[in-house]
Amino acid sequence: MKILVAIKRVIDPDARIRLNADSSGVEEESVEYKVNPFCENAIEEALVLQGAHGGEVVLVTVGPEDVTQTIRSGLAMGADRAIRIEGVDTELDSDLVARILHKVVERESPNVILLGKQAVDGDNNQVGQLLAQYMGASQACFASEVVLEGEQAKVTREVDGGLETISIPLPAVITADLRLNEPRYASLPGIMKAKRKPIDVLTLDELGVTDTALKIEVLSLELPPERQAGSMVESVDDLLDKLKNEARVL
Amino acid sequence: MSEYYADLRDLRFTMFDVLNVASLAEHERFTHADAELFEDVLLAADDQARELLHPLNETGDRKGVRLENGRVLTPEGWTEAYKVFAEMGWHVLITEPEIGGQGLPHVLHVAVGELFSAGNMSFGFTPGLTTGVIGLVNSFGPQWMKDYYLPKMVSGEWAGTMCLTEPAAGSAVPDLKSSAIPIEGTEDAYKIKGQKIFISSGDHDFTDNIIHAFLARVEDDPTISLFLVPRERPEGDGFVFNDVTTVGIEEKMGIHASPTCSLSFGDEDDCVGWLIGERGKGLRCMFQMMNGARLEVATQAYGLANLAYQRSVRYAKERVQGAAVQDLRKKDAARVAIIEHPDVRRMLMQMKALSEGARALGLYAGYCADRVEVAVDEKDQKRWHHQLEILTPIAKAWASDEAFKVAELGIQVHGGYGYCSEYGMEQILRDTKITSIYEGTNGIQALDLLGRKVARGGGVMMMTMLNEVNRFLNGPLKDGDFAPEVAALSKARDAIVKTAMDFAQRSMKGDIQYSALHASPFLQMCGDLLVGWRLMEAAQVASKRYDARLQKIDVDPLDEELGNVLQDDEEARFLHGKVATARFFVHQILPRVHARLMGIESDDRSALMVQL
Ligand SMILES: Cc1cc2nc3c(=O)[nH]c(=O)nc-3n(C[C@H](O)[C@H](O)[C@H](O)COP(=O)(O)OP(=O)(O)OC[C@H]3O[C@@H](n4cnc5c(N)ncnc54)[C@H](O)[C@@H]3O)c2cc1C
Hints:
Structural class of chain A: alpha/beta
Helix content of chain B: 55-70%
Radius of gyration of chain A: 21 Å
Number of helices of chain A: 7
Number of strands of chain A: 11
Strand order of the largest sheet of chain A: 9-8-7-10-6-1-4-5-11
Largest sheet of chain A: 9 strands, mixed
Low-confidence stretches of chain A: none
Largest sheet of chain B: 5 strands, mixed, barrel
Helix content of chain A: 25-40%
Mean pLDDT of chain B: 96
Shape of chain B: globular
Radius of gyration of chain B: 25 Å
CATH architecture of chain A: 3-Layer(aba) Sandwich
Number of strands of chain B: 14
Oligomer: heterodimer
Number of domains of chain B: 3
Structural class of chain B: alpha+beta
Strand content of chain A: 25-35%
Bound molecules: flavin-adenine dinucleotide
Strand content of chain B: 5-15%
């Protein structure tokens, strides 16, 4: 069983985000990165499946040299090795990432490809679906339970208002929802071992991705409006009145 | 409502840019500990402190531990968290790789200790004590003991404690009455009897077995010996209860989730212990654990102090109250956040300077411990070991005394809301207080500094320490921008040298009492000097980086809008803050050295003469 897990780093979701001078992007200097939370669920699931079925867990991400820190934290959780595709985070869109991953899948021939259902920075929720399309493989997105049975994966999906359980043939693309599992912490021995695990670096050329044109152009970014100062109300009646007439939420 | 915050930026700056800890990796002993690993471990510790430990902090404080049917029960969720924490291997971060530890540098242990304390101080006791007992067994225990006990403690399945204190033996440890009688036909087994009180993690539901490092006297020995006394002792294929009963737990001011136990050993005459190290050398062995623990107490203290500062500075930016003092006479003057009020800024800067100062000293002490281990020759080893010896009591006592004041200021900045529980500020105050009391009260630390450290060997340890300070004071900084600060530090150093000489002369004349009366102020003076020195070292690095930073973002340092630039540019703000903090410390806090000197020079003996 070979499991490929595509991961992405995001700016620490708890940090204050600032925009760059011309509002074309997010200021990236001296920000802290974390593994996208949904990707952590994907790594955890891969490790659980590996525990049950054996095999290898391979991480893949697209990014510049300093994403190695993010990769190491995944290796520290227990993944066996990693592939970093040389690239610039901000010069990517979901489609290009999916096409890059497709090439990686062709090289690695994994049985299962796990991804987070979306990244908490762009909130696009597209890469898994696009990748399955490019591969011509089955997909099960928003997974909250994954069971492998022979050449099939039985996946429970979180759909609007309930759960759906489907069975799909392998190789397949599965994207993780938060309730899939509780990601483990990397142990200290894990952190130390991670430094010795191989990280292959490939350029887009080496991978054979020639068309790097983006299908999406970001025109501008805006911060949410600053929170307005609150005010104290005199009585419950005042509060109700404000909720009805000012906030119009009642 | 109470939040966890850590200052990773300052931790990184102090470790990497000021101490250059990455260079430790050049030594065989720490080749695996490069900057990358430091960073990974730091981030992992921060995650754990925030996600695993801090959510348990408030309920731990409210619910506390309880004693039911003779066993201590910890609050809900604590045992599960302990298991995760132990599996992570945090308690064996500095433990030798040969026995399954990570063999990482002390300075990193100090760094993560601060984060765990900020996350949840009570939680740290059991892992911390286990680290210490592992060290004792590994350094002094016989081979069979290492083979049998170390794997279980290293894995975290069994936990440790240190059992010194007895009702009549608190500060005066040698007055203890616990006894050990050799069991005939065995080489190192003894029948143990005694009452121990105030034993942290003496009983809990984290682990199946608890391993006590126990001080007692063998028969009529004048000297004290150290024993390993398990709660459950191995017998045949299994375990039998080793006659260690939990008599009670203390109700106390803070650290409510850390069980402080009274334990009774050998009530039924069926408690067995095994000698660790040589008979009669117990105190000397125990000092290994205590020295480590004293540094840990410093990290506990400034971990909480820094948390108090982090919360306070955020609160002060949000809490709107009154108009700016320069606008008071204006009609319709805008209401401002309290951080605009100079008096609030004074409090915040006190908090920042004291907690960052304690951190700088704590990390430096940890770094000294590492340099001892990688020393290239005897001279080099002495250089670092002497410093560590001097720094241990100072870091412990200075950090814990000042941390309590920082906690108090934290409440003050929050006003009435600080006195109430909502923001968690009063818990910080209650939790911090113990750090000046246990592991040897700060009074005992002061006597240790004066009697054991300064006076020994003609003052060679103190001279080594001051040499390091002098190297800085005589360096390039004394003529530049920082000349006033360097001059102030030099004057403080002179005051300390003068005091030390004065004490030496008095003791030659047989006047011990007067020096003992002033031992604590002397320790505080030394702490002020050393902290000032560490902060100025940091300022020296920061100021160069700051200039480079302004150049990079194309800002004139005299720009009228500099304030706005600093608001927007985190890097420039941090570096500017480091310089400001050092200056503030040197000009607003360090001068108290001279007030203390005046007190000491006065020859006033009223505290000794008075009938109270
Ligand atoms: C929460 C908590 C946890 C603890 N955990 C442990 C533990 O795990 N293991 C353990 O063994 N102990 C533990 N202790 C005990 C702790 O170390 C002692 O309380 C401490 O050493 C002081 O002893 P004492 O309380 O008897 O005070 P005393 O020794 O009675 O001291 C009272 C005051 O007199 C001063 N004083 C005493 N003797 C001298 C002297 N010779 N010169 C100058 N001043 C002096 C002290 O500085 C202090 O101000 C713990 C205590 C507490 C409260």
